[in-house]
Structures are given as C-alpha cells and as structure tokens.
Amino acid sequence: MDNTQKELINLTNLPLANLPEDTGAVFGAAESIKSMLMKYSCAIREVKTKLEVLSDEFSAQNQRNPIEFITSRVKTPKSIMQKLHRRGLPVTMESAQENLFDIAGVRVICSFVDDIYSVAGMLIDQDDVELVKTKDYIKNPKPNGYRSLHLIIRIPVFFSDGKRKMPVEVQIRTIAMDFWASLEHDLKYKKVVPNVEDVQRELKDCADTIADTDMRMMKLRDEIDRMKVEEEMKFTSDGSAGKHEDLAEGREGGGKEQYVVEI
Ligand code: 0O2
Fold first, then answer.
1. Which residue has a Cα nearest atom 29 of ligand 1?
2. CA triplet 257, 260, 263: central angle to 5 degrees?
3. CA of 148 to the centre of ligand 1 (A)
4. Of the ranges 49-58, 94-103, 161-170, 248-257, which one carries the lowest mean pLDDT score?
5. 169 catalytically annotated
6. How far is the CA of 134 from the centre of ligand 1 (A)?
7. What are the backbone dihedrals phi and psi of residue 251, each rounded to the nearest 5 degrees, phi first?
8. Cβ neighbours of residue 63 closer than 8 Å, sequence gap 6 or more
9. Residue nearest to atom 39 of ligand 1 (CA)
10. What is the pLDDT of residues 25-41, one digit of tens each?
11. Strand partners, 156
C-alpha cells in the first residue's frame, strides 16, 4: 500500500494499523470519499441553478447581464487533506465535513464591482439560503492585493436518505480581480521563485491598478447609462417615434443581433 492509498484510508477514519494490505480496503475508502464529494457536487448544482435564475431575471430587468460567467469545483481529496493537515486538524472525512466550508466552491465573475454586491444580496435573500460567514476582501483587501467577496452559505439538498444542509463557498469578483487571482494562485505552486519579493510587489501594484480601473469602469458605465436615458428622453419629448425607431436600429437591442452570455 503506497502513501496516497494510506492517506485515502486515513480520510475515511478507518484504523489504518489494523487494515490488511489489500486493495479492497483502498477501494472501499475511495468509494466513501467519492460518495462524500458527490454530495458537495450536488450542492454546487443547486447554487449554480439559483445564480442562473437570478442572472436571467436581472438581465430581463436591466437589459444587461451582471454575471459574466460561473465556474465551480469540488476540492480534491489531496487538497482537503493538505488543508486539514496545515490547520493541525484530524485528517478524516468527519473532520473535513465539520471544519472545511470550501469543499464545494462556486466562483461568480461579474462585470462591475456593484454587480458583486447585487448578486450576493439576491442570493442570500433567498429563504432557503443560510449565510454562515462573509469575508469581504474587496472592502478589506488582503496584504498581497487579493480582492474578492467570499460567502459561506448552507443550502438544503434532498438526498434519498433525507435533507442535508450543505456548505458552499461562493467567491464573487470582477473579471479583472479574477485575472489577477489566477496569476497570483500560480505563484503559490512555484517551489522556487527567484526575486519573489519583486514579483509580490509587482503583483500588489497590479492589484491596486486593477481596483482603480474597476472603479473607473463603473463610473464610465454610469455615465454611459445617463447619456442613454437623456437621449431616450429627448426622443420621447420630441414625439418623434418614427425617428426613434430608425435610429434604434443601430443601437443596443434595436434590431441588432446580440451575443448571448451562456453561463
Ligand atoms: P484553492 O486551491 O483555491 O482551493 P479561513 O476560512 O480564514 O480559516 P481559508 O479557507 O483560506 O481560511 O479562507 P479564505 O481566505 O476565504 O480562502 C478561501 C479561498 O479563497 C482559497 O482557497 C482561494 O481559492 C481563495 N483565496 C484566498 N486568499 C487568496 C489569495 O491571497 N490569492 C488567491 N489567488 N486566492 C486566494 P484555498 O483552499 O486556499 O485554495
């Protein structure tokens, strides 16, 4: 039995010392983990459906989609074990279910910063969604420059043996924040980085630039929206509906085919 197999058995809380050196035990352990992770994957599906419904509704009301895209992942057994080990917690399935709230993770990428809070508000206002914890790394960025809104929620999932309230970590951020986080995340997995401090400083600088750009983009969007309203008011006060229709051909939603965001 190799170390990975032993770790897998560990995670099932089976007494490792008493196990025969056979593959049956390993197979059983792997099956238990698979079944545990399947439950988290179902919870992800529930949260994604909620977000997709909100996104459709928001688009219909506001003529734009606040959600660019949604991704999700279930933490791997290796990553679960590493996190438990790092925190000095028992490396067992029970411990993982009790102590880790990000085994199921959903990432929502929004167009603008205020969309992040709108989406978060609409999600946690649902009466079957229990908000466990909020970490606002946008209002309080991490020292390295990381920005994102994290919500730990619990949602009910109905399995054959009853209802379980499953924890899901929802990370909501802008495209720019996500771009930054992907690159910074890569750095964590590099064993040797020459001039690591220079790289970290540069990353922090980019994070601040991105935050500033995100705010400017939001202001620009508001300005463009205001111009659109003024233009429409001008057309309606002129009473020139025909003229309006002609011009609308070239404007957003006015006869032009649009790309559809598929989440
Ligand atoms: P992975 O590989 O993404 O799964 P805490 O709850 O405070 O005890 P925890 O669980 O680290 O500690 O919570 P936190 O700070 O909310 O972080 C959870 C996840 O957010 C991380 O998961 C990352 O996905 C992301 N994250 C947090 N900080 C950073 C950061 O500085 N840079 C990047 N790129 N991502 C970050 P994991 O399990 O660390 O990793």
1. 146
2. 180
3. 10
4. 248-257
5. yes
6. 13
7. -105, 170
8. 252, 253
9. 83
10. 666 677 788 899 999 99
11. 165
Q: Which atom of ligand 1 is nearest to the CA of 185?
A: 34
Atom of ligand 1 nearest to the CA of 135: 16
Say if residue 124's pLDDT is above 80. Answer: yes
- pTM here is 0.83
Ligand 1 pocket: which of 89, 109, 153, 185 to mutate (most atoms <8 Å of CB)? 185
Least Cα distance to 106 among 64, 150, 147 occurs for 150
110 in Cβ contact with 140 (< 8 Å) = no
Q: List, in sequence order, every residue forming a beta bridge with 162; answer none if it has no partner.
A: 159
**CA pair distance 179, 74, nearest whole angstrom:** 21
Measuring from each residue's beta carbon to the nearest atom of ligand 1, which residues come in under 6 Å? Answer: 75, 79, 83, 102, 135, 142, 144, 146, 150, 181, 184-185
Residue carrying the six token digits 């003229």: 243
CA–CA dist 174, 161 (Å, integer) = 39
Q: What is the maximum span of the chain, computed from C-alpha positions, in angstroms?
A: 87
DSSP 106-146: EEEEESSHHHHHHHHHHHHTSTTPEEEEEEETTTS--TT--
Which amino acid belongs to residue 21? E
Of all protein residues, the one whose alpha carbon is nearest to atom 18 of ligand 1 is 102
